[in-house]
Design brief:
alpha/beta; FAD/NAD(P)-binding domain; D-Amino Acid Oxidase, Chain A, domain 2; 6-stranded mixed β-sheet; 5-stranded antiparallel β-sheet; 19 strands; 24% strand; binds flavin-adenine dinucleotide; L-2-hydroxyglutarate oxidase
Length: 406
């Protein structure tokens, strides 16, 4: 029997996980991963909060709910088996008033529905048994929420791909993936070169570029990626120990993103962030420059203006933290007043590949589409890194087998 050829586009944690899963399930297969940068994991995978989300937020029955829970198990095992750091530091989601408390109770129910282990409601002073300096009327405690370095995990997966006989083509931006009439798939690089191997299957995991690659490859144009940056600040060392793990606000349905929170990092540093604001470029992490093509694309997308008009209050809230470090700190210290005089340093931003529908709604769940033998990840926001190994299982064992309704 002839060897089956698989192409995977994108060397972030999702593409790497898919390539690894293919090599595990089909040991004799020929798996080639294409990455446009000179190294893997240069985009969202190395610019995130590093949280292994336990599954507190996701609607029952959604892909996020299912793949996040399975992803936690797989990430934990992967870290143990590969001697990578995994710190189960726990998380509290804190309500500051009765309105938030009512929303928090709904979140507790979602966590129970998703079978998140050992979640518990805490009231008033009970919060201090977990986070001694945190105030609030109630909190949802998830002791198994953890932190990791997704960059380290991704780089270890890249090594594993090579060990298992796969190939990683760096500096190889893909322009298009095309189904041919003979059933084979052709990969054309942005240089114009047609890759010499004809593939049987391809999976695109292009993150911030996923809509463009999908469109160039003949898939549907929408949803479109609209980039939202998230700024972080790192607390100066003397303030780090006032918080033990992760402290989050209760999500407000009026706002599309979670809100500024305290996140412990796997290197022991404590961060606050990320906020969420429209980014002037899809892949610009210092916030200084802009990319005309990226801006033009969302400006001419009617969905963007529908989103913008509906989210003026959210934009106002977020812009306060974009333009003032003091406001940013104030958002966080509502939960830990002992840190109101803390000093911080800016850290690198992250940029979310957030898919947006033509009607201006943000796509909430993961979106994975199949077009013949080509599969596209069209939306994989948080908890996309937590879920990555489970997303890979789902794509290889269900989507590519025609068992999933996509
Ligand atoms: C601010 C922020 C905080 C987050 N926090 C968390 C968190 O705490 N926990 C969590 O689970 N998730 C979190 N996420 C989400 C998580 O980071 C993403 O879901 C995950 O990293 C997506 O991985 P990916 O491989 O799909 O995309 P990426 O990591 O962006 O990788 C895509 C890759 O494709 C490559 N590529 C793109 N186009 C092409 C092309 N044409 N040819 C070849 N290669 C191409 C890119 O160079 C890149 O390497 C966060 C995201 C952000 C932005």
């Amino acid at each position: 029997m002839s060897t089956v050829n698989y192409a995977v586009i994108g060397g972030g944690i999702n593409g790497l996980s898919v390539a690894r899963q293919l090599l595990i399930d089909y040991p004799g297969a020929n798996v080639t991963l294409f990455e446009k940068e000179s190294e893997v994991a240069q985009h969202q995978t190395s610019h995130n909060s590093g949280v292994v989300h336990a599954g507190l937020y996701y609607a029952k029955g959604s892909l996020k709910a299912r793949l996040c829970r399975r992803g936690v198990e797989l990430v934990r095992n992967y870290c143990t088996d590969n001697n990578l750091p995994y710190d189960q530091c726990g998380k509290v989601v804190v309500a500051l008033n009765e309105v938030e408390e009512a929303r928090l109770k709904k979140l507790y129910q979602i966590a129970l529905d998703n079978e998140v282990p050992n979640v518990k409601m805490l009231y008033g002073e009970e919060i201090k048994t977990v986070e001694p300096n945190c105030i609030g009327v109630a909190a949802l405690h998830s002791p198994e929420t953890a932190i990791v370095s997704y960059e380290k995990i991704a780089k270890r997966i890249a090594e594993e791909i090579i060990e298992r006989g796969g190939k990683i083509e760096l500096n190889s931006p893909v322009q298009s993936i095309k189904n041919n009439s003979d059933g084979k798939i052709t990969i054309t690089l942005q240089s114009g070169k047609v890759y010499p191997t004809q593939f049987d299957y391809a999976v695109s995991c292009a993150g911030l570029q996923s809509d463009r690659l999908a469109k160039n490859s003949g898939d549907v144009e929408t949803p479109k990626i609209v980039p939202f940056f998230g700024q972080y600040f790192v607390l100066d060392d003397q303030f780090t120990h006032d918080v033990k793990g992760l402290i989050y606000p209760v999500p407000d349905p009026k706002y599309p993103f979670l809100g500024v929170h305290f996140t412990k990092r796997i290197d022991g540093k404590m961060t606050i962030g990320p906020n969420a604001f429209l980014s002037k470029a899809r892949e610009n992490y210092d916030g200084k420059g802009f990319n005309f093509k990226d801006i033009k694309e969302f400006i001419f997308y009617p969905g963007f203006w529908r989103f913008a008009f509906r989210n003026i209050p959210a934009a106002m809230r977020e812009s306060k933290t974009v333009f003032s470090q003091k406001n940013f700190i104030n958002e966080a210290t509502k939960y830990v007043p002992s840190l109101s005089n803390m000093t911080v340093k800016p850290a690198t931003r992250g940029i979310r590949a957030q898919a947006m529908n033509p009607d201006g709604t943000l796509v909430d769940d993961f979106v994975i589409r199949r077009d013949g033998n080509i599969t596209h990840i069209r939306n994989a926001p948080s908890p996309g890194a937590t879920s990555s190994l489970a997303i890979a299982e789902y794509i290889v064992r269900e989507v590519m087998q025609g068992k999933a309704d996509v």
